[in-house]
Amino acid sequence: MSLAAPSLPPGLRRRRRLIVLTSVLALSAVLAAVLVRTATGTTRFLAADRTLTVATWNMCGVEQWGCADTGSASAKRLAVERFVDAGADVVLLQEACATHAESVREVLGGSWRLSFRPYTWRDSGGRGGTIDCTGRGRGTAGLAVLSAHPLSSVRSVPTRQPEVGLRRGVLCATVAAFDVRVCNAHLSLPGSDRAHPDREYRDDQLKALVAAVPGRRTVFGGDFNLKPPGARNRSGWVWPSAAYGAFRECDQAAGADRSGRPTHVSGHKLDYLFTGLPRSSCTVRDTGVSDHRALLMRVEAG
Fold it and tell me: Which of 153, 183, 165 is nearest to 121 (CA)?
């Protein structure tokens, strides 16, 4: 014989339904704020956070370019990890070795993406190729984009480069999760063209870079090998007006400001991050393992 469950009084039934409903709502709130710990130990919320932090750093990882005494590969890798711990979603690297860049990606975890573009060279006979980093198994020298989110539409931007000598470049990609185009640029030093040492390339390279970015939803920068425009900068004329006009630089305090904290051991600002999005912070970070300091810029991408 089965026994029927006793019927609850109407008031008690209402209280029980209210308790169940309250519990469900509380559980939903907990789930909405659940924390995700990435492979680097960085804690992030699953909430609809539409802020994007981009870092740029010339890591001085190519030893034969005066970087032999700036720190080990593991120390430089740790520096990038610290950018990520500080909130970086995207890291633009210059003077990186392919193997080192891949090792950084591996340490950051499987969700991180890497796009790498080798530097090239060309001799007076028209022959060219890539540049190997000093040391066995370090791969080619180049610039890289590291991202915590998938990258799409990755491409190198054609720019005017020295006829003879080292050719750097511009690498762009879209962070689809934020619908933001990021570009990493490493501009030519004066005298880079061994056949024509008096030629200036940075003006054309900057014009090509600015032309490659879409409207305001972009972050572009890198090592420009160039001081900010101003009366004391004889090369200030190479800057396109759109750089500080249509966009704002990470360390730009106001619309008319063309200054910025030093990013190089020489005491000059050579590294930049520009955006058309609202900025919420700009950090200059000395890693101690490069002749360049890093820039970290946080933008509102909502």
Answer: 165
Fold of the 49-300 domain: Deoxyribonuclease I; Chain A (3.60.10)
CA distances in angstroms from 217 to 129, 182, 302, listed in the order given: 34, 9, 10
Within 8 A by CB and 6+ apart from 2, the residues are none
Pair of tokens at residue 16: 């029980």
Query: What distance in Å separates the CA atoms of residue 90 and residue 106, rounded to the nearest whole number?
Result: 15
Q: Which of 46, 41, 175, 49 is nearest to 108 (CA)?
A: 41
Rounded-to-10 torsion of CA 173, 213, 293, 148: -30
Mean pLDDT of 93-105: 97
The yes-or-no verdict on residue 14 having pLDDT over 80 is no
57 in Cβ contact with 94 (< 8 Å): yes
- pLDDT for 32 equals 44
Most confident residue range from 32-36, 80-84, 136-140:
80-84
Question: What is the pLDDT of the chain when averaged over all its residues?
Answer: 88
- Cα–Cα distance between 164 and 221 in angstroms, integer? 25
